[in-house]
Write a structure and sequence with these properties.
- With 392 residues, this protein is an alpha+beta fold.
- The protein folds into 2 domains: 279 residues, no CATH class; 89 residues, no CATH class.
- The chain is built from 17 helices and 6 strands.
- The strands form 2 sheets. Strands 2-1-5-6 form a 4-stranded antiparallel β-sheet.
- A hairpin with a 2-residue loop joins β1 and β2.
- The longest helix has 22 residues.
- The radius of gyration is 20 Å and the shape is globular.
């Protein structure tokens, strides 16, 4: 998903769920920042590098692909962008190495999405935003895994967009180029994906790189042949998936707001979005790669306030100006704590399942600090519960 959904659509969901304009801006800002918080940026502001929630292209180019390097990549991408649906999935006649990767395939309504939303409860707007990014991506990025793998993430060249017109569905061939700076052409069906690499652990085989940006566009319906499904044809309907993602976000944010006593899988707040459902469906169906203006207009209609753009400079200035003891009370400080908590939780769940692709982990709530210095800040935050302090 792109900025239009992670920022403006998340803002709309927060408003519908009952948050104020100001609270909703904090939530959607955090949701968007998940796509920006790199180690390079954290080094710039003096933050903990382990709190990175994504990686720059240049960082990926330099990434190691030995065991430790792959574990580092997996911790980031599986925790925030490709949350595994079923860590105990079954598939006959497959090796343990294959199954460890297969069980990291992303999808909605898994146990980990419940853990993600509940982890954010009572931990502030930034934690809520992180959870909404992760939840939304389970719908957009399903069928791909957040670890480099040719046998899981590769696709065949067989890609067709499914276009409905005059009551019929037409197939339109999709053509991929490999120049990341080249413009994509929705009308001609020309998109960009990663170059095929036969190496199992090449970073070119991470996530949905082989399908390009198709999973991130709300309008598209397409069919393709994924490697993990033995190259059997599958249909991906982003319009339906994005609508479900939005309805589930409203429900999840209602839970975080205190409207509901529990958060469960396969539950959606259709009743709350019913007054604007037709407008959302219309918006999702528009054939373009950026729906920012429409989502922004919808947000302003719902709240009666101007929805300003993401204010990274302001958040950075706040963090840099804060004294050491008060940095954790800033937007970036609370985001960092929420990111560390999410990464720690997902890594721990993967490790508990018997899968070491995300590295080794201990449950610090039960075992205390065991020398994992990257997460010592998280332990300090747990002790001081600084995330409960909202801005004055």
């Amino acid at each position: 998903m792109n900025k239009d959904f992670h920022y403006y659509a998340t803002y709309c969901a927060a408003i519908i769920a009952g948050f104020s304009h100001r609270e909703s801006i904090r939530i959607c800002s955090s949701a968007l920042f998940v796509d920006m918080c790199t180690r390079t940026y954290l080094a710039k502001i003096g933050g903990p590098r382990m709190a990175a929630t994504t990686q720059l292209t240049l960082e990926m180019a330099d990434a190691r692909t030995d065991i430790l390097g792959l574990q580092d990549i997996t911790r980031i991408w599986s925790s925030f962008h490709f949350l595994p649906r079923d860590l105990y999935a079954k598939k006959k006649k497959r090796s343990r190495i294959y199954m460890d990767k297969y069980r990291l395939i992303c999808g909605p309504n898994g146990d980990l999405v419940v853990d993600t939303v509940k982890l954010a409860a009572n931990k502030g707007f930034e934690a809520a935003g992180v959870a909404m990014h992760v939840l939304a991506d389970t719908w957009a990025h399903q069928h791909f895994a957040g670890t480099p793998s040719l046998v899981i993430n590769n696709t065949d060249d067989y890609f067709f967009e499914l276009i409905q017109k005059d009551g019929r569905v037409y197939k339109k061939p999709i053509v991929f180029g490999h120049n990341p700076s080249a413009a994509e052409d929705v009308n001609k069906g020309i998109y960009t994906n990663t170059v095929y690499q036969g190496s199992e652990n090449s970073v070119m085989n991470l996530g949905h790189g082989r399908a390009g940006h198709l999973p991130d566009y709300s309008f598209i319906r397409y069919k393709y042949l994924p490697a993990w499904n033995d190259y059997i044809e599958m249909v991906k309907d982003n319009q339906s998936d994005y609508l479900h993602a939005f309805a589930q976000m409203v429900y999840a944010l209602g839970y975080l707001k205190g409207r509901y006593s529990d958060f469960k899988k396969n539950v959606y707040d259709w009743s709350l979005i019913e007054p604007i459902e037709n407008e959302i469906r219309r918006l999702l169906a528009v054939r373009r790669t950026d729906d920012t203006e429409d989502w922004k207009a919808l947000g302003e209609y719902l709240s009666g306030h101007e929805v300003t753009d993401f204010n990274l400079k302001g958040f950075q200035k706040e963090y840099m100006a804060a004294s050491k003891g008060k940095k954790d009370r800033t937007f970036l400080g609370r985001f960092i704590i929420a990111a560390l908590a999410q990464k720690s939780m997902v890594t721990n769940r993967i490790f508990q399942s018997g899968n070491t692709l995300a590295g080794f982990s201990v449950d610090f709530h039960e075992n205390g600090f065991k020398g994992i210095k990257d997460f010592q800040k998280l332990l300090e935050a747990e002790k001081n519960r600084k995330w409960e302090k909202s801005d004055e």
